[in-house]
Amino acid sequence: MIDISTPASRNYFTDEELQCRCTFCARSREQGEREAGSASNMKADFLAHLNRVRERVYCRPMPVSSGYRCQHHPEESFNRRRVEQAGKTWTPGDHPCGVGVDIRIHGSAAHVLMRSLHVYNWFHLQKNQPQPFTAICPHQRGLTQDRFIHIGGNNLAPGRPRPWLWTY
Ligand SMILES: [Zn+2]
User: Fold this and answer.
1) What distance in angstroms lies between residue 168's CA and the mean position of ligand 1's atoms?
2) Which of 20, 36, 104, 113 is most buried when burial is the number of CB atoms within 10 A of its CB?
3) Is residue 115 situated within a structural domain?
4) 62 CA distance to ligand 1 middle (Å)
5) What is the mean pLDDT of each run of 10 residues along the chain (168 residues)?
């Protein structure tokens, strides 16, 4: 068993990698709006879990390719349009809720990271606590530098089953 309650000894994720990377936010930041799509939109509990799994289970770098996403982010607005055009209600996903990151990773490191996240969840289940990671979803096709594992911490909601597994 590992310590799943005290904070990690440090923060392993930078504001720069967690902030929204859409062109709208990037431009706003350039123009001096420092809070545009800020990493402070990430939920503290979710980051605490990520830092613990990074420090105590996986114990290797976890480079974030996408963290917080605002409503202007192309992936989010595209998903929303697609769902609404199908006549369904759109429920925000992990990134816009501040409980989602994509970790750029592939191959054996991806295998170990998937295991680490599930082991971390399992520690919580052993203590009758809800599992922190309700989505652990691999995108492992195409160029290796574009591959990632999505980690999400949202709760069950209409149009958003959890826990859930999807692939890309
Ligand atoms: Zn944005």
Assistant:
1) 22
2) 20
3) yes
4) 22
5) 94 98 97 96 98 98 98 92 92 96 98 98 97 98 97 94 96
